[in-house]
Amino acid sequence: MIMDHKVNTEQLMWESNWKDQFDHNYFKKVQVETQVSPWNSVLKHIIQPFPKIFLEDINDMETINAMVLTYAEETSHVWVVNENYPIAENFPWHWRPGDTDNNYIYEFPVVSHRSKRPLGWDVVRLVPTSGNPKSVIRSRIIAGYVDTEFDICFISYHEAEADRNFQRLVEKYPEARHVKNVKGIGNAYKEAGRTSSSEMVWIIDADAIILDHFRFDFVPPKSKRKNTTYCWRARNPINGLEYGFGAVKLFPRKQLMDLGNKMPDFSTNVSFFQPVDQVSNITAFNKDPYRTWRAAFRECTKLSSNIISNSKVDENTERLDAWMNIDNGARFGRYAIRGAKDGAAYGKKHAGSPDQLAMINDFDWLKKEFLGAMKKKLTV
After folding, report:
1. What are 260-315's pLDDT values in tens digits?
2. Angle 289-305/313-325 helices, nearest 10 degrees?
3. How far is CA 38 from its chain centroid?
4. What confidence tens digit (pLDDT) does each residue in 68-107 have?
5. What angle do CA 129, 37, 125 make, to 5 degrees?
């Protein structure tokens, strides 16, 4: 049975078979959550915890050390707790460092529920009262969890690899949802917003191969969750560029709901756009000649027309040059270069006409343009 917190701990200490009285599945769960001994529930009844100090800011170490020194005659350490974070109910306040590790500051992280990755270390600290700590040690023991996680939406439109890529995604993130075969990019984004319930929504394209190191655990400040779109970087398999083309994005849900269908670029034409300097995925758009040409045409129309909000003209020019000239030997590279050149010409011609530029989101029109381009000699 699971230990009752009212159990007589003195009796437990003296019984030779006391470990057998507990549900070991319960202790296994505790260990996973806190990264501490499975006998945590027993020890907290036996060991007297160190005193606690609750503060709004635990990064002012000069003030903290002065406060902690007042406890020097009473105890060897003091817990310093950030009062702005909810601490895990099973946090082991009885925990103590080893005899040889007494003169260090220990930090305990707040983590993402989804990935268990540390998101901050200014939550709980164990500070020695000696007044002269050697250094800081970061513990694996979890102090608390970030209480905000956002829905993950995978968007596809008849891509042959979509189901396979989505299955790869849900193996890591079972809660991810598939917005499938909604005609029109704007309509697909709106459907992602309509079917989500979180304040922000992760958007993943069908041809995105998420890199192993990437985690969907980024949490923006509350002040930016309603008006800022975040865009990571994606790696282009043909020319090696790494920027926002085809990358993972995090949208405010309301912005997804309010997107118009006439915008050439749905990611950057928003209230605020924030690039994130981390590669999230490979954009494997080179699956067949048409899709390769289409992706290059759409992107280079944006680059040559400079329609992308808050973009830098010199960066657009450099990226456009790479699209039109670099082929590292990946599949259908020559179709990417042809699409880039066709898109660059179209973007330059219609730079002052948003309605004409918005045609790049009409896949039926794009298919006709592709077939027309293929009637001409394919040269690079």
Report:
1. 555 555 555 556 889 999 999 999 999 999 999 999 999 999 999 998 877 889 99
2. 150
3. 30
4. 999 999 999 999 999 888 899 889 999 999 877 888 999 9
5. 30
Residue 34 domain flag: no
Helices assigned H by DSSP within 195-231: none
User: How many structural domains is the chain composed of?
Assistant: 3
Instruction: Give residue for tokens 């996973």.
Output: 32
Q: Which two tokens stand for residue 187?
A: 């309509």
Outline where 123-252 has alpha helix (H).
162-172, 185-194
Domain housing 294: 285-380
Residues 6+ away with beta carbon under 8 Å from 273: 228, 229, 231, 267, 309, 310
Q: What's the pTM?
A: 0.69
Among all chains, which residue has been given the structure tokens 């992602």?
A: 192
Where a domain ends, among 111, 146, 181? 146
Is there a single domain that holds both residue 99 and residue 87? yes
Residue 207 lies inside a defined structural domain of this protein: yes
Q: Which of 146, 161, 190 is the last residue of a domain?
A: 146
Which residues in the chain land under pLDDT 50?
1-34
- Using CB atoms within 10 Å of the CB of residue 26, give its burial: 0 to 12 exposed, 13 to 18 middle, 19+ buried: middle
